Amino acid sequence: MTNRFVNKRDLEFQLFEVLDVEALTARPRFREHSRETFQAALDTAVAVAAAKFANHYRKADEEEPVLEGGRPRLVPEMKEGVAAFVEAGFLKASSDAEAGGMQLPSTLTRACHAVFEAANVAASSYLTLTVANAHLLEAHGSPEQQRRWVEPLLSGRFFGTMALTEPQAGSSLADVRTTATPRGDGTWLVSGTKTFISAGDHDLAENIVHLVLARIDGAPPGVKGISLFIVPKLRVNEDGSIGEPNDVALAGLFHKMGWRGTTSTQLAFGENGACVGELVGEPHRGLAYMFHMMNSARIGVGLAATMLGARSHLHAVDYAKERPQGRPLAAKDPLSPQIPIVEHADVRRMLLQSKAYTEGALGLCLQAARLLDEEEQGETPESRAEATALLDLLTPVVKAWPSQYAVEASSLAIQVLGGYGYTREYPVEQLYRDNRLNAIHEGTNGIQALDLLGRKAMARGGESLRLLGKRIARDAEEASAHERFREHAASLLEAWKRAGAAAMKVGAALPTDPERALANATPFLEGFGHVVVAWTWLRQAMAALRALPSARGPDVDFYEGKLAACRFFFRWELPKAHHSLSLVETLDPTCLEAKPSWL
Amino acid sequence: MTNRFVNKRDLEFQLFEVLDVEALTARPRFREHSRETFQAALDTAVAVAAAKFANHYRKADEEEPVLEGGRPRLVPEMKEGVAAFVEAGFLKASSDAEAGGMQLPSTLTRACHAVFEAANVAASSYLTLTVANAHLLEAHGSPEQQRRWVEPLLSGRFFGTMALTEPQAGSSLADVRTTATPRGDGTWLVSGTKTFISAGDHDLAENIVHLVLARIDGAPPGVKGISLFIVPKLRVNEDGSIGEPNDVALAGLFHKMGWRGTTSTQLAFGENGACVGELVGEPHRGLAYMFHMMNSARIGVGLAATMLGARSHLHAVDYAKERPQGRPLAAKDPLSPQIPIVEHADVRRMLLQSKAYTEGALGLCLQAARLLDEEEQGETPESRAEATALLDLLTPVVKAWPSQYAVEASSLAIQVLGGYGYTREYPVEQLYRDNRLNAIHEGTNGIQALDLLGRKAMARGGESLRLLGKRIARDAEEASAHERFREHAASLLEAWKRAGAAAMKVGAALPTDPERALANATPFLEGFGHVVVAWTWLRQAMAALRALPSARGPDVDFYEGKLAACRFFFRWELPKAHHSLSLVETLDPTCLEAKPSWL
């Protein structure tokens, strides 16, 4: 069995053929780039990930971090891996060239990071958190903070975290209790406990920079009174050298089902009254700053889920082509040779399904990354504003849909491998365990569903929905020109209409009965997500159809596979959206009315 | 958080109120029994399981069996657990009273075994395999074999296995290569390799009795040439004492994602030409005998999946009632107290869904167990034949539906617990890992789907389907008398009609194009399974409605919960069957036509 961890051909297809990232080289910021430099970045990512990340994917799971001298010790390969990532420039993939960065578009940066997530999601976490942490400080920190923190972060000397959750405040940030008290010199004393902090302690970097949500004494209650602080594990002297410990104690390590190579920590800040932090931006605006990082992280979660599912799919395909078992149904002669299991229709059903889920999810995630570029580098204020509106709407879907359906791809891969898939001798069970986290962290999928239906779909008087609807209608119209896509285009428009009708009903009920209106937010996200993914499939299929006439060799199969997976999604998956959306449209009260004592 | 592992109230409801097992006391075999003796058996099972099985559920996962002197060493609690099970009489739960058994109906025996599976599925496996092994020998072994093997098995001196799978013959038993050669004295020399043999080696019993599928020299090829042999790990002397080792070598232990307390082994029989076996029954009839055990084991798999899912549900309910987090959507005051998460509609959605899946699955599995009693102790030859026909039809559904949907309940429980659910500090992640095996072993769910659509639904000219349809129609008619069930009854009949239409289409295509006809066997099983489970929900709801008027205290909530979960299943789940069945009815060719090179 081969051990492919990423489908590079599909990444190239999505980037160059569906999203046309090459067009971005016309924008001033990316003028120095070309298709070749984009390709080179991707090639480097695959090479480094293969050599330095994929190599310890299993080992980092088996040898979970253990405390040594009060500090978690990771497998040594992880240190080599992150060093190689830094060395290859991926911490600064999207940073300015003059700051030593690659100045790549977000779409490319995300695609490169995704390659590392496919190879070893636990090792990648330390790095993507660090990048997100640095970008938040670039956006909201003072020039002095940028000098002191951003440069060490982006050069890999320091690593970053986001410290939001507290034991009594998981999904409810209004209940954050960590406090910050002015010391009189512009710095703050921070005190409180944070939990489930990923990468909260480790031995991979000189220092760890925690971005901590806390309340300043006398702050308004709730989310309007939360401020953001930089709290390093070790203090940093004026000259940038490491100083005294900063009274940040590791209170415990969680032992997880998967994703074991990334430490998940409980941290105690200021137990001895000596934890010093710096305020980021203005007081009480911490949550708004943090959402910058969280929205970016949510796209990262969707992409990680996608890549774990996509890798599962690759393993399943390779296994199914090699494993002989059984015969055609009509074969009567038990002495005839066995056939590879991929020849059985039900195995192909599993593989088409996991292909449709994971490549559809990849299309969705990279579409969102493409909107990040449009938001920042769009040619007009209108196009930038449109990108922001679309991103706002799509972010909860990008986070939640892959973390539900790409996990299913990991489960399907176990099923294809059968008994072997259930053993730790094969990689798919780890992918399944690792992937299960994605529906939980960075806001559970239930929270995403409420965000989508209660906020994003309703925002700007439904303007974001209308903008997305226009794009979908435009692509559907283009697709209708092809006989083979006519039915798909009609189904897509019909399902989109249904989603709009459901959102309207919810919008009408929201002012008077928000509990009832939003009770079925999850089926809305599932149905809406299916419609959006169907749209990305139609776009992929159209790109495949364009490319087919001049395709040769394995590319013909590649494009035919796209057309087949698109057919599968439209025939087998999209119809499910109607049932989900009908529950929303009728404001079905079944769950709302169930009493806790009945459960 | 409490640590309930089984919902005893629900077992009692299903047994006494839905299935009326008390009526079985009118049958001659169960004349000595009463509601009280049935209840006592259940109470004992819960007490023993709580004390001796639940206590090491986590430990048996963490301390996976390791080889010590060539033999797997299990945690010591497991030996105490199986001893307590034997001591309490559960190996002989359905055996004749004159042989020291409890002479319980199968429905009760299965319910008691299910209690142990809920507490510790890995420990239970050793025992349920032993019972199934002994019952096969009771049915097909010679009187001498019964004396030599059955008594030691049912007294817990020896434990049993079923040894079918070989490395090159997983789902394809036609390819079994293990051979058996006559020794001239009525015994046989057995030689070959078996893999994925659960409980294939351990230190829990004096001896292990393998039931091995092998080919006698010159046997016809394929499944028609497979015979069944008793192959003990250690030879047994005439007086029943343990003799020499029997050349059965442990070639390897598999390391699994879950279910770790049960050894999964590769066994080498006769590497030194000294592995002696006894033929069971007649030559070449081995597979037919083994199906006796496998059908029984398949009901066991469905029940195990159900109990793991049901336990997950209990943990999630208890956690959701205790964990404060967030506020009602309309609450504006962040200083108001947080509410338990069960107050959020989306959490109730997850709990209703897991309740609907697991209690629906329990209804299905116990319905099948009840048919086992009818098959053996039915009052007329007609009722016994009808039970056989229905059991044949339902067995693949009983195996596959819970092992798909009750696993989903384990996943939902992780989601309800959030970050905690993903840690090994809470039990739900283990339940999720353990439960994932059930879709694989005892015939993958894909195999079950082919069995259901290609064989069982078509058998006897569709007679089994007609018999089931009559029962469903009868219950739907009864339900229609109640205003609140009228819509459910109509939906059930409509969905049943759809399933029948799909089966007809397949039946018509089967002779000419079996590959196409059966390509969508899995959506058929999913859709058909949903219809059958909807039926068991309607039966549960009717029993609840009968009981409500005289119910007091917590029973009122219990019955209202049944009505709510039934509503949920009919509104949220049953409609999904139409889409699945429409793919079958149209003989959708999407998967069949996908080429392996496209995947």
List keywords for this structure.
two-stranded antiparallel ribbon; five-stranded mixed beta barrel; 599 residues; alpha+beta; 56% helix; 18 helices; homodimer
What does this structure look like?
2 copies of one chain form a homodimer. Chain A has 599 residues and is of the alpha+beta class. Helix content of chain A is 56%, strand content 11%. The first copy, chain A, contains 18 helices and 12 strands. In chain A, the strands form 3 sheets. A 5-stranded mixed β-barrel of chain A has the order 4-5-12-7-6. In chain A, strands 1-2 form a two-stranded antiparallel sheet. In chain A, helix 9 (345-377) packs across helix 16 (521-547) and helix 14 (483-509) runs antiparallel to helix 16. The longest helix of chain A has 37 residues, at 286-322. Chain A is globular. The two termini of chain A are 46 Å apart. The interface between A and B is large, with 104 and 103 residues.
Biggest sheet character of chain A? 5 strands, mixed, barrel
Rg from alpha-carbon coordinates of chain A: 24 Å
Query: How many DSSP helices of chain A?
Result: 18
The structural class of chain A is alpha+beta
| Biggest contact | A-B, 104 and 103 residues
- The number of strands of chain A is 12
Mean pLDDT of chain A: 96
Terminus-to-terminus distance of chain A: 46 Å
Helix content of chain A: 55-70%
Oligomer: homodimer
Give the arrangement of secondary structure elements.
Two copies of one chain form a homodimer.
Chain A: H1 8-18, H2 35-52, H3 57-62, E1 66-68, E2 71-73, H4 76-87, H5 106-119, H6 121-140, H7 143-154, E3 158-163, E4 179-182, E5 188-198, E6 207-216, E7 227-232, E8 234-236, E9 242-245, E10 248-253, E11 264-269, E12 276-279, H8 286-322, H9 345-377, H10 381-417, H11 428-435, H12 445-456, H13 459-480, H14 483-509, H15 514-517, H16 521-547, H17 554-585, H18 590-593
Parallel strand pairs in A: 3-6, 4-6
Antiparallel strand pairs in A: 1-2, 4-5, 5-11, 5-12, 6-7, 7-12, 8-9, 10-11
Helix pairs in contact in A: 1-9, 2-4, 2-5, 4-6, 5-6, 5-8, 5-9, 6-7, 6-8, 8-9, 8-10, 8-11, 9-10, 9-16, 9-17, 10-11, 10-12, 10-13, 10-16, 12-16, 13-14, 13-16, 14-16, 14-17, 16-17
